[in-house]
Amino acid sequence: MAPKSTSAVPVAARGVTKRFGDFAALQELTLEVHSGQCAGLLGPNGAGKSTFIGCLYGAVDRTGGDLRVFGLDPIRDARRIKERIGVVPQENALDEELTVFENMSLYARFQSLRKPFRRIEELLEHMSLGHKRDAQIKSLSGGMKRRLTFVRALLSDPELLILDEPTTGLDPAVRHLLWERVLSYRQRGKTVLVTTHYMHEAELLCDQVIILNHGVAVATGSPKELIRKETPGFVGIFDAEQKHAVKAHLGPDWHTFMQARQYCVRAPQIENLITLQAASRITAIQMRPANLEDVYLKLTGEELSEDA
Amino acid sequence: MRELLISLRLAWSVVVRNWVVYCKDFVANISPTLADPALMMTALGMGLSPYIRSIHGLSYAQYLAPGMAATTVLFTAFFECSYGFYVRMAFESVFKAMLTTPIGTREVVLGEFMWVSIRAGLMAGGVGVVLVALRLLPNPWAVFVFPFIGAILAIPCGAIGLLASTYVRNINQFQTVYSFLIAPMYFISGTFFPIGDRPVLGILVQVSPFYHGVSLLQMTAWNQYSPVRVIQHLGVILAYTVLLGLWSVARVRKKLIN
Fold it and tell me: Measured on CA atoms in the order B74, B75, B79, B80, is the torsion positive or negative?
């Protein structure tokens, strides 16, 4: 059991394990999400992100370890936990036949909210859906449905917002709108836990990320820390055809890898890359600071070696 | 106690959800439950009745009448909890979203049972009104008791559907459940011919919860009460309700929670 001082911590996991028969979906996962923080769970499909999310509100029963949400155990107290959280699941699961307003009214009832109608109207406006109040769900676009799922999760003004791949498959405009809404929600001192495989999203929203691979946490820290620790420096991207010409001028501790059929060189300083261009007489396609995606690809073992 | 009240309120919100969705397609939803017994009464009651001598002093149409109310209950409850529930669970992911709210699997099952119970009760009452209008109920006051019998009979009938939903591997397999469980109950539970006093069938039929519901409706419709038999029939239905109800909660939980 977690010590008493952490009982109010929104999420505290100690050695959480989930097995499906012989398959371990989560192995000894330990993490904490503090009040007011935005934590990101990153990892490839099947890494255990959604399994962990499910464990938090009783949709998945963990098979081992200790898990507390606001100090409560989801296996025993799922309902009390669910009174305090909002969830945007991977699937919207809205009632297609109903109108936007009917749908939200029903969910307000599930949350036992009193006089929810003004709240619903406000949130619809907030998510730019006010004009769709009486539209049938099945007439909405994918982006609108997603925004409505956010409205649904925010109805009870939850203390903890759980987002499971919130922006997968959405166009950039909707994605930016949702990011803005998540940030403004956080600004009110609320806590967010998000799963994603968009590294840009994680860098933008999260102050702590946990990279999962095969159910194991392979790295934890702020995006900046992780980049500094795992893939420091700058990346120059070159045409794969010019690999050998570039390779002759690399520094001793530089790192090389392939990305989308492009030859990438990571050097400690941007000046190193500029010197490299001059020495090899080859201009890079792009030069950029190393980012979370580099960390992610390295740690999940998805980075292709330069021989690939 | 407080927990129970919260559970009931949440289960009621499941009923409201189903009602709101049901109303979206009201005519299509209500048609089979009313048309089927009407057709049955026309074909068998009016069509066949003149050729059959009386049963227990009743015309065949009068004999058949309460069974039609029972049949409506059976089909309403079974189809709602089998196909209806399965579609909500597997195709519409209704419960995935619902379970992110304070509603748990217990409330889902309780809500589904309350929903079919109310719906089937109202249907039984509706069929009762039609039967009274056709002067097929020797005891016309029975129409006020029909909804209550319908409501309690609906739960074991619905539970069979709900349990089937948790065992079938795809939606077509409900057909098997229908053919080997629901259809036999429908045809061989005293609905179409007296069965209770038959040597072998009369004993076998005792295991069918539907038979006990049919008997209760018949006793009411024909004004042939026997307190002992009322208690027997109610007891069996209640026992099935508890047994299948608890089994349903366990199965649905297993299906919805990983």
Answer: negative
The one-letter amino acid at A19: R
Which regions in chain B score pLDDT beneath 50?
Answer: none
Give phi and psi for A267, each to the nearest 5: -120, 160
CA-nearest residue of chain A to B88? A95
Q: Using the beta-carbon criterion (under 8 Å), do B17 and A83 form an inter-chain contact?
A: no
Q: Which residues contact B43 (CB under 8 A, 6 or more apart)?
A: none
Q: Give, in degrees to the nearest 5, the angle at Cα A156 between A34 and A200.
A: 50
Which of these, B65, B76, B92, lies nearest to B30 by C-alpha position?
B76
Q: Report CA torsion sign: A241, A242, A245, A251.
A: negative
Is B135 within 8 Å of chain A by CB? Answer: no
Strands A160-164 and A191-196, by their bridges, are parallel
Span B156-207, pLDDT tens digits:
999 999 999 999 999 999 999 999 999 999 999 999 999 878 889 999 999 9
Q: How many CB pairs under 8 A join A and B?
A: 77
Whether the Cβ atoms of residue A231 and residue A266 lie closer than 8 Å to each other: yes
Q: Does B128 touch chain A (CB under 8 A)?
A: no
Are A146 and A93 spatial neighbours (Cβ–Cβ below 8 Å)? Answer: no
What does pTM read for this prediction?
0.90
Domain boundaries, given as residue ranges, for chain B: 2-20+28-256
pLDDT more than 70, % of chain A: 96
Neighbour tally for B33: CB within 10 Å: 22
> Which is it for the CA torsion B168, B174, B176, B180, positive or negative?
positive
Closest-CA distance of chain B to residue A277, Å: 54
Query: Which candidate from A60, A89, A102 shows the least CB-CB separation from B100?
Result: A89
Please determine, for residue A7, whether its predicted confidence score (pLDDT) is greater than 80: no
Query: Coil, strand or helix: which one is A31?
Result: strand
Q: Do B13 and A78 touch (CB under 8 A)?
A: no
A234-239, strands of its sheet edge to edge: A255-259, A262-267, A234-239, A286-289
Residue A232 neighbours by CB under 8 Å, 6+ apart: A268, A290
CB atoms B97 and A89 under 8 Å: yes
Sketch out chain A's domains with CATH numbers: 4-223 (3.40.50.300), 233-289 (3.30.70)
CA B254 to CA B249: how far, in whole Å?
A: 9
